[in-house]
Amino acid sequence: MANTEENLPQKLLSRHAEELSLSNPLIIEGETALFEPRTTPAESAIIFLPKSKALINMTLALVSGMVREGGTIVLAGTNKAGIKSADTQYEANIGPIEKKIVGNHSALWVGKNKRLGADKKIADFVSYFPLSIKDVSLKIAHLPGVFSAGELDEGTKLLLETIPYDRTRVLDIGCGAGIIGAVYKKTNPESDVTLSDSSLLAIEATRETLRANDIAGTVMASDAFAGIKGTFDLILANPPFHTGVSTDYSFIEKFVADARKHLNRNGEIYIVANAFLPYKEKLEKIGPTTMAAETPKFIVWKTVA
Question: Which fold has domain 126-304?
């Protein structure tokens, strides 16, 4: 676990390891573990409290199906992250909390798996919301933890109202639920749209968005450009800039490092970002960058290769 705050529940676990006596526990530290195939149930599990509250219920339900009946499941998290309010969700999906271990500004909820949420699959947590923009009406799929939750956010709306819709090869990078790529393809059916995200839950939501609207597109998991092949006429993004409560520039730094090699000649990048973020100076490492649109809160930056 990366920082001091995140290490607090790990230290509490280490202090009580002998008391817990877990047999080869399944470790759930993020959404990736929820997608790993298992042929047999695990004997026990340790779940580190998801950062997104919306993910807690889904994670507990899915893990209840990964661990054998009666196996020990530990939910670990800091007080600041909300572990104390997660007891209801634990008991709804796992079973009664038999032991509460507190200390180190953290807590461990410990109980035996009653498999109360074991019948749930990721698809059971998909919901939909309607979207109308650019004379296009769509049904957008949403999963817990995927941006944006049940509505069109102001930044994405500004981006969609600003970008050109006459390009052939288009990349929606950091696609979330697939809104940008889906709107582009519906507006310009002749375009070839690729949608990518580092989040496997976002990839699931995007695939479901395309399926629900009968839209063809290439969907792939990729951390920035790490898994992207080929070049594009237009690259679009509403990139994340938060890790918890801290400003995180890791995505935009990786984006800037590799974007040029994925742009066709005269290709363009349109990125929407909060107005206070210093994206112009970063994007100018790729090419000339100008403001294409703005509101008091957001700016759309246009970069030309």
Answer: Rossmann fold (3.40.50)
